[in-house]
Specification:
The strands form two sheets. The chain has a seven-stranded mixed sheet with strand order 1-9-8-2-5-3-4, sandwiched between helices. It has a two-stranded antiparallel ribbon with strand order 6-7. Strand 3, helix 8 and strand 4 form a beta-alpha-beta unit. The mean pLDDT is 84. It is α/β, with parallel strands linked by helices. The two termini are 27 Å apart.
């Protein structure tokens, strides 16, 4: 490709990203003009109409059929539609996050959010030490570091920016406002997380993402590769590892759960076992997803099937 053609297509790509970003920003600004419950109902209906017509819906149904072969097609379709509703609410909740987190934090209850495991938040805050919190793309997972920060517990989270650089910039700024320190998921991120642990602080990781070069494990009985970053960090810094999740409740409410630290399996040398721990993480996430299947992102290509389904 000639330099002229390269510059032309690069500018075309940049212009496309800018236009898409402006459409998204305009939609979000319009949402701010209407009451939060109205915005949520509108986007849910729109998602229930549009989501099933997309290619990603086919992928979601295929993943559901493999994960839940015992369920009927109607049951799996219902889960997939609930998933789209969850995703639409997640978008709106970005806009109204200040209203969501405006509640009394003294006992973990009040407002729209209840916290189960508040004593663990407070213990980690009052007795600083390196720790890792892991979660999955369930409910509104973004609330976990936000509420942690409101308790005075600041967790440095690994963040995968959107492909659109204009949206990524805005989203990064919005997340930093409420979440504290964020580390983009790119080359060198693991060193930055290690530095946080060395300083006796905590890091947060999502562990249900697609990964090409990880530990060979099972998820819903099917082969997947799982990122071993958490395992290696825990092994090197011998720190506590806590499971945490967000559960979407009726009437626009949430329950955030921070479970007790888990015991990680070790090998014959006494080191934390990479494959065994990666499988333990998958088992925990699977138990969460089985309990609330409509709150997980089934269109996510966890089993690397997109190339087959979305031809």
């Amino acid at each position: 490709m000639s330099p002229f053609a390269y510059r032309f297509f690069f500018r075309l790509y940049k212009a496309k990203n800018w236009i898409v970003a402006q459409i998204v920003f305009t939609a979000l600004r319009l949402l701010r003009l209407i009451p939060v419950q109205t915005a949520l109902r509108f986007t849910e209906k729109a998602a229930a109409f549009i989501g099933p017509k997309t290619k990603r819906h086919r992928l979601a149904l295929f993943n559901l059929s493999r994960a839940f072969p015992e369920k009927s097609e109607e049951e799996r379709e219902k889960i997939a539609v609930e998933m789209w509703a969850n995703m639409s609410r997640l978008m709106v909740e970005y806009v109204f996050v200040e209203q969501l987190i405006d509640h009394d934090l003294r006992d973990g209850e009040g407002g729209l959010i209840e916290v189960d495991g508040i004593e663990r938040f407070l213990d980690l805050r009052d007795n600083p030490r390196p720790f890792i919190v892991f979660t999955a793309h369930t409910g509104n997972f973004e609330l976990l570091p936000i509420i942690g920060a409101k308790y005075g517990l600041h967790v440095t989270a690994l963040f995968r920016p959107p492909n659109n650089p204009y949206i990524a910039k805005q989203l990064m700024a919005a997340r930093r406002t409420h979440m504290g320190q964020l580390i983009p998921s790119r080359v060198g991120a693991s060193w930055n997380l290690a530095s946080v642990l060395e300083q006796g602080q905590g890091v947060g990781l999502l562990v249900d993402q697609k990964f090409h070069k990880g530990a060979k494990t099972k998820f819903f009985g099917m082969d997947v590769q799982t990122n071993s970053l958490l395992v290696k960090l825990a092994r090197n810094y011998d720190c506590e590892v806590y499971p945490a999740r967000s559960i979407r409740l009726p009437n626009g409410k949430f329950r955030l759960e921070m479970e007790p630290a888990i015991e990680l399996p070790r090998n014959d040398k006494g080191q934390i076992d990479i494959n065994g721990t990666a499988q333990l993480l998958n088992d925990k996430v699977e138990s969460w997803v089985r309990e609330y299947p409509g709150q997980w992102q089934w269109f996510h290509d966890r089993w690397n099937m997109k190339h087959i389904i979305l031809k």
